[in-house]
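agent> fetching stored inputs for the S-adenosyl-L-homocysteine docking request
agent> found them:
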Amino acid sequence: MDRDFARERRLMTDSQIRARGVRDPLVLAAMAKVPRHLFVPEGLRPHAYADEPLPIGDGQTISQPYIVAYMTEALGLRGGERVLEIGTGSGYQTAVLAEIAGEVWTIEIVEPLALRSRAILDGLGTTNVRYRIGDGSKGWPEAAPFDAVIVTAAAPQMPVALEGQLAVGGRMIIPVGTDLQELYLVRRTKKGFDKERRLAVRFVPLI
Ligand code: SAH
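agent> prediction call returned; pasting tokens
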């Protein structure tokens, strides 16, 4: 029997995301729409809408729904933006971004994950995503500048290469640190970079 995943998704959006303060209607709509259960291993589908990260194989994890929503909201997307994502992983965050932004460039270093996430997104009919397999810490210079950059694995230090690929007025959300990590929001201004520490988090490290 099929579970009522659409209902689970609405409950997730209300009780885990809206209730914790995410207010952007575009983010809430995307979270209520993207079928997260398709991005987790089949045996974990019953847990897909639970308030936790889940293993996706190859030692990696799909982020907790709230963190995906929080990071997406921090980018301030209104539609039409060019977004760079480092750490495609399951492709779930990619799908949420593709729902709101104009175009998404996503980089994943673990090939099986990159191939699997692409197959799922293709299956959903997503056409505004470009994929690359490799080290994302140098960004995607040929496609820069980006209006938004999102990094979903922790960097030991703020990566200068990624800051440099932000457009003026652009934003980057990134976990920085080793044991203790914090989510930073970086805004590029005409004069330089404003950096704001937002939230204590726990991500797998960048490889
Ligand atoms: N947004 C993903 C998070 C996956 S976890 C999701 O919700 O499913 C972080 C991902 O970053 C992993 O898939 C990992 O393989 C990838 N990663 C780690 N180091 C990387 C690097 N240097 N370049 C690109 N991807 C990297």
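agent> quick read of the result: The radius of gyration is 16 Å.
agent> awaiting further instructions
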